[in-house]
Amino acid sequence: MTSDRKASDATVALSxxxxxxxxxLAGGGLVLGLSLPIGESRSSSAETFEPNAFIRIGRDGQVxxxxxxxxxxxxxxxxxxxxxxxxxxxxxxxxxxxxxxPNEKLxxxxxxxxxxxxxxxAIRGAWKxxxxxxxxxxxxxxxxxxxxxxxxxxxxxxxxxxxVHTPSGRRLNYGELAVExxxxxxxxxxxxxxxxxxxxxxxxxxxxxxxxxxxxxxxYGIDARPPGLKFATLAQSPVFGGRLKKVxxxxxxxxxxxxxxxRLDDAVAVVAxxxxxxxxxxxxxxxxxxxxxxxxLSTRDIARELxxxxxxxxxxxxxxxDAAKALAGAATRVQASYHLPFLAHATMEPMNCTVHFRGHExxxxxxxxxxxxxxxxxxxxxxxxxxxxxxxxxxxxxxxGRRLEADGAVRAVEIARQVDGPVKVVWTRxxxxxxxxxxxxWVDRIEAGxxxxxxxxxxxxxxxxxxxxxxxxxxxxxxxxxxDTTEGAIDLxxxxxxxxxxxxxxxxxxxxxxxxxSVGPSHNVFVTESFxxxxxxxxxxxxxxxxxxxxxxxxxxKAVLELAAEKAGWGTPLPQGRGRGxxxxxxxxxHLAQVAEVEVAKDGSVRVHRVVCAMDCGxxxxxxxxxxxxxxxxxxxxxxxxxGEITLKSGRVEQANFDTYQMLRIDQAPSIEVxxxxxxxxxxxxxxxxxSGIVPAVANAVFAxxxxxxxxxxxxxxxxKT
Length: 722
What we know:
Elements: H1 5-11, H2 16-27, E1 30-33, E2 54-57, E3 63-67, H3 76-88, E4 95-99, H4 104-107, H5 122-149, E5 156-159, E6 162-165, E7 171-173, H6 174-182, H7 210-215, E8 230-236, E9 243-248, H8 250-253, E10 258-263, E11 267-272, H9 275-284, E12 286-290, H10 299-309, E13 316-320, H11 323-328, E14 332-340, E15 352-357, E16 362-366, H12 371-382, E17 389-393, H13 407-416, E18 423-426, H14 429-434, E19 442-450, E20 456-465, H15 468-472, H16 483-486, E21 499-505, H17 519-538, H18 543-548, H19 555-568, E22 578-587, E23 590-600, E24 606-616, H20 623-642, E25 648-649, E26 652-653, E27 671-676, H21 689-706
Parallel strand pairs: 3-4, 8-18, 16-17, 20-21, 24-27
Antiparallel strand pairs: 1-2, 2-3, 5-6, 6-7, 8-11, 9-12, 10-11, 13-21, 14-19, 15-16, 15-18, 19-20, 22-23, 23-24, 25-26
């Protein structure tokens, strides 16, 4: 990314691969491959080096990182360059970013095995290989300088983008050494810095993308404007699986600026000179739909199917001891059933994609979390081989998992095939919410047994819902299970001697499902942390003390629980109508405890006043980014707890815009405090952890305030009226 709009426009005018090759050939310099555990890299000379991802240093000393991850507000484009800059001994301001082109072999996420940004693992995946890349570059530059000076490399050091000969004080900047360094064989092994040697990692770094976002030069997908651009917006069948029957476009075509009506099997689009004309044209269309077989579908139908599924055995996700036997002999048995609704993403930047289809080739401008997937699916829709489809990635105005999907790009290609010249397809907010791919609906049937002291001796959970992984990454779905669907339901932080969890896959008819921020844990942590709270209540014990007693084997979890409780003032009096709730988790490789303080009014409305978070996410790369991520995740989760629900009636999504799919307003935002535990463990994930834990914390706080247990989200004020 660059803050210079002209430079940004230039970089999208040719493929990233050709750009890199041409730069290496024309200017000379040092180009390095990252030793990612996916695919292979080889090195010979600067002209032929083909790595998995790139550091490029030109004669001007500029460090260019071809970024295999995307920025969607989470701070990746600051934190990941910090890894390279740390080991390369350059200032963060010396690193410039370019989006990686679609290439699964070179740029696959090492933790996913595909080219994608998601699952809170950009830093986790980049932690070692990008530091190794920086260290490798530093060693090669030092060797180049030592050869030029005719001195031993041990007498030289790197600092601030230069190599210094320590005895004499002579200096050469990296640009002066780049060509020579490119001719030096990379070392077989590098030694990385110890944590006590870090200069950048662990310090609050100003985000590199802020200036461009403030001055308007930052380019999002919706900002793409190739010459001759037309605009389009669309209406899709209001029932998933429905078809377009007929359309009267006479009134639409009479609107000034409307150029064309594009008919597809299940959609119709209006192409115009500008978005205003396209929207007016769409409103003027008279459309008749064939609803198809899902016309009578309701949310209640889907919920009933899932409830029935929890009565049947499913694949075992985890089995410890003998839960059935322990339940039979327990002094007390506690049972519960939980429901979690469909949720939309509602990203601030609506779905959009710009496509120029030229018959023999296709060019795409989009903001995507999975650029290689977009290329592959767009190529199929265009009837072209993938190498004839060029995809330019951009900044993303909110992903949350929605832009791991390629359906928006596919739809834009389908429209562009009927349009002469480039066309930007922008979904209205109504289309965005009513044709999203939703967080699955979940039903859990869970039971636990307690001994005479109230300590859990058995835990048994069977839950039913969709597996997004089974569709999105089939090889990861094995024996009826996948790691996303079960994360947060198994491998709990607590000591539970007899533990049994089953998952029953049920794909709902008539509504597509997809990843949603914090994915599997957004469901599982709500259930497990709500239910452990129920066990504490059944045992007539304090919720924090009850959890703490089960954490002797897990010091990291105990530390964040105790810190959050202390900072929140756990146990101190609150005004009538207020309560505190706690939730604890270890998901995405990070330990997080959250305490929510809520107020329940007489009309049943709930306000979250304060949230206290204690996080152990291993080594912190950028503490400012970590804090911002937790704050963002909390806001996302509180919104879901209070308002989030997508419902179907007669096969149609009932919510359409922010009046019916409400967001948390700025005057409703809670005070959020974040405390970080110093840790020497490798970094954990941050982008989604804050979302999964806050929902049960809020629900448990409502129980503390009212005595009413919430087993279904979102919170229904009618059930809480005094």
